[in-house]
Every structure is written in C-alpha cells, then in structure tokens.
Amino acid sequence: MKKTALSLSVLAALALGTASAQTTIKIASISPLSGGQSNLGTQIRNGVQLAVNEYAAQFKKAGFNLQLVPYDDQADPATGTAAARKIAADNQILAVVGTLNSGVAIPASAALAPSNLVMVSPANTANQVTDRGLANMNRIVARDDSQGPAGANFITDTLKAKKVYVLNDKTAYGEGLAGEVEKALKAKGVTISGNEGTEEKSDFSSIVAKIKLTKPDAIYFGGIYNQIGVFIKQLRGAGIDTPVVGGDGLDSSELPVIIGKAGANNVYYTTVAAPLEALPAAKTFAANFQKTFNTPAQGFGAFGYDAAKVTLQGILDAARANGGKAPSRKQVLDTIRKGTYKGLLSGEVSFNSVGDRKAATLYVIKLTDGKAALETSLAVKPPKN
C-alpha cells in the first residue's frame, strides 16, 4: 500500500512538473468591444482569437501555453492608453494586435514603446501612426496618403465630380484621411465647396442645409460608420441623392442598417480590409469564423486574423532563434519587423523600416439597396521603403 501510494505520488509530481514546464505566452488585442464602433472592434478581436486557436497546437509543441487577453478601448484614446499600460505591466504578454482607430493607436503604441512591446495593426491608416518612427509599431494596411488619393481618383475619374463637399469627424483618422482627399482633389482642379469637421452624432440639419445650398457633385466624409450612417440617413431624408464617399471607417455591416435600405444607395467607400469575396483563401476562414462565433466574418475580422498570424509567427520565429526558450519582448519586436509572412488571407506581408506594409491593396465598395459589392481594387505602396 505504501509503495503504491509512493509510486502514485511520484507519478503525480512528474505529471505536475510536465504541466508546469509549459511556459505561458500571451498576446493582447486592443479594440472597441463596447459602444458605437463595437461591430468592427469585435470583428478584430474575434479574428485574433481564431488565429490564436489555430496556433495553440504549434505553441504547445514548442513548450508554450498560448493565451489571448482582449482589451476594450471603447474607441477612446485615454481608455486605449490605459489598456496599453496594463498590458505593459503583464510580463507574459509579448505582443499586441490593434487598434481599430488611429487616434487610439498613436498614444497606445507610445505607451507600449518603453517596454519594447510590439504592436501589429489590422486597421490603422493615419500617416502619423508610422511616421513617428517607433520601432514597435507596424501595420498590415495601406496609409491615408495612399487611401486618400485613391478616393480622390474615384471621385474624379468614376463619379466625374467637379465640386466636392469635404467633411471629417475631428479625429486623427478622419481629419488625416479627409485632408489627403482634399489635397488630391485640389491638385486635380476640383472645387471644394465646403470643408468642415464635426463631432455631431445625431443632428446634421445645419450641414445638410449647407450641402443643399452649395449643390456639390459629391460629398466626402472622413469618419466612422456610426456617425456617417446617421448623416447619410438625414441627407437622403432631405431629398439629396448626391454620392457620398468615405474611407474604411464605413466598412461595417451596420452601415446600411443605420442608413436604412431606402437610403443606402449611391454610397461608396475605400477600404484597406478586403471584402471576403476578394480574398481567394478566405472561404475556409469565413466558415471557421461563422462556426466559432456564430456571426459572419467581415473584412476587419480577416485583417485581425492576418495581423495575429503575423504576430504569432513572429513569436515562434523569435523563440526558435532563442534556442527554443520564450523570447524577450525586444526579440519579438525585432523579429516581426524583419520578417516575411506568407499564407495570409491578404497576401504576403513584410514591413519597411518604419513598419508600413511594403505592398498593400485598396478596395472600393459600393452600396446598392443596402448591399455592399466590390467596385474595383488598387495595389498601392507606402511612400517610404
């Protein structure tokens, strides 16, 4: 009896030792999981989770337990920065995927930088995100100075607009994107009939009145779907059918819901997150996403997934280079910036010296009767290589 009990205790200890030998490695996500932009933020989080689920076996084989720690930034810079500080304090977190909003990414990445905590963004487009030259900031999407001219070209070449009213939501993202569009339009000789920023969320009557008076051929609004959807609904309600063009902030299935089917026409947006039908490899991803989360995948879910795969592969590569031991944050940071990542939904990813993707694609989407369809696509490169 004693011998058996001793043997069992030894076996239990050995089993415990084997379990404890698995080092825990975490990655974090930062995106809006509550509030008016939670549709896109949850897509990002879920895309990251799906990648973590798929990579868990590889990490276990390498001796690591892999975990995702999601944080809700509420699309607010202060909340996102506070989350970044909490993340930096957890030494098991080796990388971050996020954010949705450039205005959150800029201070959050700065808060992570002193800890050498790398960030891979699936969504941020403002030039300032990477122009600061932070070693920890990377993105897998095109910049505003690529997206802006693409939007301007569409307005002039396809919509044939000669006079455009430009709006923005007074955020780093909206102002930056609208500014790039306006600059490109002016270079093409287009008249800017109005240019203003607004934080209004519910009553756009004064802006609608100005548009009615100036009669532009097109309207450009740099901002997010929850605000712009309300604007378009009121614009259409006032009998104005002028084409409305925006950026990837409109890329949400909630946009036509907010506008209403009757008004969700003649609306276009450029997006850095491809519609799934434009990604040949996305069929399996979409099926797994639906099965796992019981909701359809959208573009930012796919790009959250790709950003996470870049992050996770970077950690594994850094671990291998570190003799199979858990790498430091600095090793992960350096490895991700220098790496080339294949087998992604959005194609091969590699970064230039400031963390911009060396080659990206922009997509133009059109809403017709509330349904989104791909209008065209355009390959772009950042200004710095």
Termini distance? 72 Å
Overall structural domain count: 2
Name given to the CATH architecture of the largest domain:
3-Layer(aba) Sandwich
What is the H/E order?
A: HEHEHEHEHEHEHEHEHEHEHHHEEEE
User: CATH homologous superfamily of the largest domain?
Assistant: Response regulator
Structural class: alpha/beta
> What spatial order of strands do you see in the largest sheet?
7-6-8-9-10-13-14
Under CATH, the topology of the largest domain can be stated as Rossmann fold
User: What's the CATH class label of the largest domain?
Assistant: Alpha Beta
Number of helices: 13
How many strands in all?
Answer: 14
- What percent strand? 15-25%
Roughly what percent helix?
40-55%
Low-confidence stretches: 1-20
Topology, pairings included?
Layout: H1 2-20, E1 23-31, H2 38-61, E2 64-72, H3 77-89, E3 93-98, H4 102-112, E4 118-121, H5 128-131, E5 137-139, H6 144-158, E6 163-168, H7 172-187, E7 191-197, H8 205-214, E8 218-222, H9 225-237, E9 244-246, H10 254-259, E10 267-271, H11 282-293, H12 299-321, H13 329-338, E11 340-341, E12 349-350, E13 360-368, E14 371-380
Parallel strand pairs: 1-2, 1-3, 3-4, 4-5, 6-7, 6-8, 8-9, 9-10
Antiparallel strand pairs: 10-13, 11-12, 13-14
Helix pairs in contact: 2-12, 3-4, 6-7, 12-13
TL;DR?
The protein has helices at residues 2-20, 38-61, 77-89, 102-112, 128-131, 144-158, 172-187, 205-214, 225-237, 254-259, 282-293, 299-321, 329-338; strands at 23-31, 64-72, 93-98, 118-121, 137-139, 163-168, 191-197, 218-222, 244-246, 267-271, 340-341, 349-350, 360-368, 371-380. The protein has 385 residues and is α/β, with parallel strands linked by helices.
